[in-house]
Structure formats: C-alpha cells, structure tokens
C-alpha cells in the first residue's frame, strides 16, 4: 500500500520506517527541511534502538522517501497518517492543536476524493469529529479516522513492529478495511485489534496514559508514607505487584514521570473533561500531577539536607539527564529539572548521560556536561542518581569513591544495588526506603 506519514518526529519517523519495513511504500513529510534532508540521507534525527539500521535499509530499498510538500503527499497516496506534536498550550493546561489544525487545513486543499486521514497524535476527545467537519468543508469524499500510538521511547521500533494492540476509531467499513490492510502482517503476528468509533479511540489513548501515570504517582505516594514510617517502598511495590490483579510493572518508585507525553497528556485530559462537564470525574489527575512534581521537590530538599542545608560552594554530580533510560529525549526530564533547581540554589552541577548530552546542553546551557562518569564525579560532595541507565549499575563504587570529595550518594531512582556501594564506604540514601 501507499501512504504518507506527516510529521517525522519520534512517532512519525518510527511509524514511517516500520511501515516501509513491513512492505508499504511510504512518503514521510515534515515542514522541517533540515530534518527531511537528514532522513532522506538515511540518517535518523532521533536515537532509538534498531532505527538506524531499518531506516538505512528502507531508504535504500526505495520504499521510503521524504518530502516537505503536502501537495506531493496528497498526490502520492490516499492514506495519510498525521503524527505532528500536540504539546501543552503555553497559556493553559489544554492541548495545543495548532499543528494538527495546520496540517488538516493544508491537506484539505490538496486531498483526492476517497482519501483517508488517520490521526496518530494524542488529542482531546472530539478532535477527529471536528477535523472531519473541517475537512468536509473543502475536500469532497474524505474521512478522518483515529489510530492512537502506544509506543514507548527507547523501545519504539520494537513496540511498533510487535504491538500488543492496535486501536482504530473509524466511521466507515472502508476506513476499517484500509487500516486492517495497513497492519495486516502485525495482526497476523498476534496483535489484538480493537475497532471502535473515533471518540472511543481518542479516549483509549489518554485513559491508558492516565492509568500508567496514576500507577507511578500511587507508588511514589506510598514511598512518602514509607519514608515517614521507616518502611521500604521497594519491597512494598514488589509485594503488592505480586498480586496479578495489580501487576508489578510501572510501580518503580523514585523521581517520577517526565517526557513529552504523560505530564501534558494527563493535564490535557483533565482540561478536556472539564470542557465536557466531566471534570470532577478525573479531578484525581490533578493529584497525580501534584504528587509527580512533588517527587522532584522532595529530591532537591533531600539533596540539600545531605549537603548540610545549603548548596552554596557544593559540587553535585548528576547521573542521568534524559527523562528515561534508553532515550536521548530531555523534554520535561525530571533529572534535568532537579539539576536546574540545584544550580539555581547555588550548587556547581556536573551532569553525565550516555546519550542525551547534546539535547541537555541545548535545553540547559548553564550546566557542565561530560560523557565520562569519573570526570563528572571528580571532587563531588554528593552524587545524585536521577535516570536509571543500565551503565550506572556497572559503576565500580570503590574506584569512584577515590574520585569524589565525599562518598555520598542519593539514589533517587531506587535502582542501584546498595550492598556494593556500602561495602565501598559510601553513605547511601534513597527515596522511600531506610538506608
Ligand atoms: P515531535 O515533536 O517529536 O514531532 C512532531 C513533528 O511534526 C516535528 O518534526 C515537526 O516539525 C512536525 N510538524 C509540525 N507541524 C507540521 C506540519 N504542518 N506539517 C508537517 N510536519 C509538521 O512529536 P512526537 O513526540 O513524535 O509526538 C507526536 C504525537 O504523538 C503527539 O501527539 C504525542 O503526544 C504522540 N505520541 C508521542 C509518543 C512519544 O513517545 N514521543 C508516543 C505516543 C504518542
Ligand atoms: C509512555 C507510555 O508508556 C507509552 O505507551 C505511550 O505511547 C507514550 O508514553 C506516549 O504517549 O508518549 P514513554 O513516555 O516513552 O511512554 O516512557 P515510559 O516508559 O512510559 O516512561 C515514562 C516516564 O515514567 C519516565 O520518566 C519513566 O522514568 C517514568 N516511570 C516509568 C517511573 O517513574 N516509574 C515506573 O515504574 C515507570
């Protein structure tokens, strides 16, 4: 099949590459000329496991091409996936739909009869219906469907090639048949398929992200109670998670969630529910957000206590800048938020990250960055573990102890093995467990 993928960010790049990999002819489109030139040269603008290889292969095969022209896209295919950003509005907590509206208006001028526009972006419920009406004013015989994206950064290619489920929100048998054909090989490999109306599909996406964010804030709330009671939240999480009705995933306590999606998605969902008169039903999401942000403040406060009540003249080594391991994305990164707060409060902050240093430097140029863990930790009064990159579990605590000024570590992700650090003479602290 032929298709376009409009917006070649995290979602669009991975979707375009994977659709070409499963045999489709794909045209990736973006307004960012540099990004399109990079992609057309077979280079990925983001770091994702397995992406470079698939991109090079699909571009070389001729099945994947790139363009900056929606007119060319409308000519090329009758199925168009829209993957542009839906960030938080600058003036409220609602979603900013300006990019999706701009694509719809521009596409409408060029679409051929019989075209299907498939939204993959995360949007407020009702968006597909609104865009459908907008399109119909200009373009004859066109339809809007919604096919939310569930990939995780860091495993985006794997999640797209082997999805647990595919959800499509459609208004006609033609749209459902088209999307079944797009995903045929993934469905044959066992992905569950849910076909529903567009509003339900839009809601499935924000409900899933809200549930996962709630799980994380729940365990972080438990961590605060554990701190107060002298109990261990890591044992608590494993023990409640052993009940299969609860499940042990997304119960890792620590600094909380960040990234370009959970924070803005729960806020946009609450804002949309308020517009619909159902705000009270999801008022708990404000609390999920508050608990999450509080973990960052709690980490800063704990770090300040550990450095004697003030950061003035203190050197702090920060391990991790990305919002999660396996990704170079620093959008709303809890680690960088903590690093910035420490810097503002007078600490000299040096940051390590195996992949995200370029993005971190661009976002927070005032801090010092290095790719070398001993260099970052040299002379440090405190080491803060803020993103659980696997390489931090391989650190030799004895060797690192000789580099720092004070062997003092706050594991704000609760993912380092305490025993070897203690054995090497480190004073170890964590969130939600007595050390
Ligand atoms: P992104 O910011 O990485 O990429 C968006 C891209 O759209 C950019 O390259 C931008 O230049 C392009 N764009 C903007 N206006 C355009 C236009 N008029 N025409 C063509 N291209 C245009 O965003 P993302 O992280 O890929 O997220 C996209 C959507 O998918 C969001 O709604 C997000 O919530 C959702 N989502 C993201 C993830 C994720 O892990 N990042 C996962 C699931 C869902
Ligand atoms: C999340 C969802 O997992 C995807 O299904 C969804 O498609 C995506 O959001 C989206 O809509 O953009 P992602 O943000 O890439 O994916 O990463 P996650 O693995 O979900 O982690 C999100 C944040 O939660 C990270 O900051 C991570 O460190 C944190 N987290 C995760 C915890 O603090 N504890 C946990 O137990 C799990």
UniProtKB/TrEMBL annotation:
Family to which this protein belongs: Belongs to the UDP-glucose/GDP-mannose dehydrogenase family.
E.C. numbers: 1.1.1.22
A Pfam family this chain is assigned to: UDPG_MGDP_dh
Ranges where the UDP-glucose/GDP-mannose dehydrogenase C-terminal domain occurs: 317-418
Keywords: NAD, Oxidoreductase
Protein name: UDP-glucose 6-dehydrogenase
Classification lineage: Bacteria, Bacillati, Actinomycetota, Actinomycetes, Kitasatosporales
Pathway note: Nucleotide-sugar biosynthesis; UDP-alpha-D-glucuronate biosynthesis; UDP-alpha-D-glucuronate from UDP-alpha-D-glucose: step 1/1
Gene3D superfamilies, A to Z: Cytochrome c1, transmembrane anchor, C-terminal, NAD(P)-binding Rossmann-like Domain
NCBIfam families: NDP-sugDHase
Catalyzed reactions per annotation: UDP-alpha-D-glucose + 2 NAD(+) + H2O = UDP-alpha-D-glucuronate + 2 NADH + 3 H(+)
Stretches of the chain forming a coiled coil according to its record: none
GO molecular function: oxidoreductase activity
Top-level enzyme category: oxidoreductase
